[in-house]
Structure formats: structure tokens, C-alpha cells
Amino acid sequence: MNMLESSVGRKLVMSVTGLSMIAFVLVHLLGNTTLFYGPDGINAYAEALHRFGALVWAFRLLLLTVLLLHVFYGIQLTLENRAAKPRAYAIKSSRATTLAGRSMVWSGLLIGGFIFFHLLHFTLQLINPELAAGRHFDSLGRPDVFMMVVLSFRKMPVSLLYLGALAALGLHLMHSLQGAVQTLGLNNERTLPKVMKAGVLAAILIFLGYAAFPITVFTGLLR
Amino acid sequence: MDLTLYVWRQKGPDDQGRLEEYQVKAITPDMSFLEMLDVVNEGLIRAGKEPIAFDHDCREGICGTCSQVINGMPHGPREKTAVCQLHMRSFRDGDTIYIEPWRARAFPVIKDLIVDRSALDRIMQSGGYVSVHTGGVPDANAVLISKADADTAMDAAECIGCGACVAACPNGSAMLFTAAKVAHLAALPQGRTEAARRVCLMTEAMLKQGFGSCSNHYECQAVCPKGISATFIAKLNREFIKAQMPGQ
Questions:
Q1: Integer Cα distance of A215 and A183 in angstroms
Q2: 3-state DSSP call for residue B60?
Q3: What residues make up the domain containing B185?
Q4: Could you tell me the domains of chain A?
Q5: Residue B248 above 80 pLDDT?
Q6: I want to staple B210 with a disulfide (CB 3.0 to 4.6 A). Which of A180, B96, B100, B106 is the partner?
């Protein structure tokens, strides 16, 4: 059997693509912290990134491929797994499963929907064209990303939507960080319980890190 | 003890099946769960009704034949305990108890609480063995095995193949079972020769028999009457990755 037919092989793809996206999420978080330095921070950061030119697009295509592979195998495996358990128990109790674990496909789909919105919002800048960084420039002539982000997050519905999406991401990561390590076969008796705890902690930290942007802007701490 | 039971009754593989209610009286806390069902069945037989069909054999917790989901938990409320070793003292007078068969596509119900678990045998047939030369008995210490490896293999070999892991898994996956067999043989020098081939064949057989895949809930290790660890699933994954390497 070919590796991509095997369920273990497809789970390895899920694990590697998932960890790659988590790496991106961490780098993206680090890059976003330039927002706290004001317009000089994030506008300079955005301009520096765009100097990579064609490489930016190559990276975006790579990331899109990784995402699509993750979504495709995630949905395929979920459908297979549901088919393998066609009948539920009249009463079901559990000892180990978590809400995060049981809702992986749903939190994943929410994240997918959010990525679509987020790209329209801050990358293609079609959601609030009047705030688009592509149309407004700071005093140094750079696209004013800072203004776009700050004025967007001042709107309660936008901030709430981002916080909701981040909650879905946090929930997804609470289960998937430990799962990715297990699927790569990196666990033993000593590490499994620690990896499970560390995965939940890391998910909460990533959630808090990202949530800091809409919260500090909306509450007026960052202006 | 007086109890209300809701037991899954299904005449045969094609019957729809339903939960039926039974009022059970004068059960003593020292009876095992299966003895309680024996009492129920004696009453049913006296009344000219069909007794409840359920699997059982050694009743010592070592054969892996008994298979009941009690109040939504495979093998019932006590951890690391097969149904046959579960006693009525784990319940209270007046309790309502739901008894259902293992549920998974790969385990079709034969009758009432009895399911067909031969899909696990087919996973074993695909690669759960070591090839050995026939002939004279080899010298006992010809192949040295470290204590650590022997312990790992013995821990994995504790699996009695009851299928509770499949019954508990939200995905109806037999990963813990398959992983225990793969890890048991891969830990020993006699099993290393065929390790790469074995992990590929056994995981392929698992998929083809209609079992799901592991999504790391670890419900399996929580219900396993022998306490087989989910870290054996990590070991299976390692063996699978090794088997994909060039030269394997």
C-alpha cells in the first residue's frame, strides 16, 4: 500500500503540514508584535517583507498547498472515521476525550473560514476598502498597515470576530499539538503526559498572544 | 440489590435490534457482572423466553472474550478490569444499567451482546507473526535480549485482543490493538527482521477491515483491561516511518 493510501501515512501528512502551519503561526505572531512599536514598527516590517517580491508569492503558494493538503486529508480521514463508527451508544461516557479533541473538524473548518476572511480583510484589503493600507501611506510613504489594523480593531464586530476565530484556533491547537508529536512517533511513557500538558499550555499562550492585538486596540491601550 | 437493566437485544445480524428493559431482584454484591446476567437468563429461560446472548470464556480476566459496554464504558466502570472481573459491588441498589455490544463497523453484531471480532484475527494474519526455522529447539540463550526490551515486549504482549479499544474509540480504530502487536514483535530481535513489512501489512489490514484511524484521544488506553499504553501507538508510528525509509 502506498504511503498516501495508508491511514497512518495520511496522518503523518496531517502532522507535518499542521506543524508547518504552527511554525508559520508563531512567526506571524512574532512579526505582528511590531504593531506595539506603532506605525514605525509594523509599516517598516510590512515594507521589508514585500521587498522579497516574487519570493513572497512563492511562500504564499507553498503555504496554500500545505493548508489544502491538511484540509483535504483532515476531511477525508474524518469521514472515514465516522463511517467506521456508524452507530452511537445509547449512553456514552468517556474517560479521556476532550471537547478540543472531539471538535477538531469543526474548529478546523472555522479556522479555514477565518483564513478566507482574514486574507480578504488585511491581505487583499477588500472588506474595509476605505481603510486599505494600499491606499493610505504614512509620512515616510509606506503603506499604512498600522492605521488599517488599529481602525479595524476599533470596531467591536471585527474584534469579536477575530477573538472568536482565535478561540477556534486555540481549541484546535489544544488537541493537535500533542497529537502531531504522537503521530510522528516521538512519545514514550515519560513524554506523553508532559507533551499533552505542554500542548494545551502552548495553545493557550498562542491564543493570548494573538488576542492581545484586538484587545489592546479595542480597549484603547494601543492607539 | 434490585436493578433496572436496559439490554441490547438483537435476534441476528440483520435484525434492527433494540434496548429491552428488565427488572432484576435479589442480586448480591458478591456476584460478578456475568453471574448477574446468568441469573437474569435463568429467569428468562424459566419464563420460556430467549436468554440474553453474551460472550464469555475464562471468567478470569485473561482471555479477552467478554465484551460489553456498560453505561457507555467498555468493560464497565472499573479501570483495568474486564467485565468478567467486574463485581456487583461496583453498583448500588436501585441502579439503572445500560448494556450494549461493542459498536464499530468492523465488529458486526451476531446476536444481542455478541459481536464478530474476527477482523482482529485478520489483522494478525496479515503480519502479526515471526517467521522461524523449523527443526531442533534453539539454545535458550542463543539470542540475547536486554531486560528493557523484554519488558517492553511483555507490556505490549499483555493485550488480550478483547477489542475494548475499538469499542471506546470515537473512530472505531484498532490502533491500540495493532500497535500492541507491532510493538511486541518489533521490540525483540526475532521480530526485527520482518518489522518494516509487518507494520505496513498490519496497518493496511486494519484499514481494509473497516477500522478508523487514530486521532489521539487515548480513550483506548483508558478502557483497556490490561492497561496497554497509547505510547505503543507512537511506537507503531515510528516503525511505520522507518518502514518508509529507502532501503526498507
A1: 35
A2: coil
A3: 117-244
A4: 7-85+103-218 (1.20.1300.10)
A5: no
A6: B106
Query: pLDDT at residue B140 above 90?
Result: no
pLDDT at B102: 98
Residue ranges of chain A whose CB lies within 8 Å of a chain B CB:
1, 3, 5-12, 77, 80-98, 101-102, 104, 175, 178-179, 182-189, 192
pLDDT-derived band of residue B141, with 50, 70 and 90 as boundaries?
confident
pTM of the model: 0.95
Considering only CB atoms, B204 lies closest to which of A1, A82, A179, namely A1
What three-state secondary structure class fits B201?
helix
Q: Which of B79, B213, B232, B235 to mutate to test the interface with A (most CBs of A within 10 A)?
A: B213
Domain boundary among B110, B129, B148: B110
| Contact across the interface for A81 and B212, Cβ inside 8 Å | yes
Q: Which residues of A touch B98 (CB under 8 A)?
A: 89-91
Cα separation, B37 vs A132, in Å, equals 72
Residue B124 and residue B238 in one domain: yes
Q: What is the pLDDT of residues A189-220, one digit of tens each?
A: 999 999 999 999 999 999 999 999 999 999 99
Average pLDDT over residues A40-50: 95
In 3-state terms, chain B is what percent helix, strand and coil (to 5)? 40, 15, 50
On whether both B169 and B152 belong to a single domain, the answer is yes
User: CATH number, domain at B128?
Assistant: 1.10.1060.10
DSSP category for residue B3: E
How many structural domains comprise chain B? 2
Q: Are residues B32 and B139 in the same domain?
A: no
Interchain pair A182, B230: CB under 8 A: yes
DSSP state of A92: -
Contacts for A176 with CB less than 8 Å, ≥ 6 apart = A18, A104, A199
- Cβ atoms of B53 and B68 within 8 Å: the answer is no
Report the CATH number at residue B47: 3.10.20.30
- A87-97, pLDDT tens digit by residue? 999 998 999 99
Tell me the nearest-neighbour CA distance from A16 into chain B, angstroms.
Answer: 12
Domain match, B137 and B240 both = yes
With H, G, I as helix, E, B as strand and everything else as coil, classify residue A116. helix
CA-based radius of gyration for chain A: 20
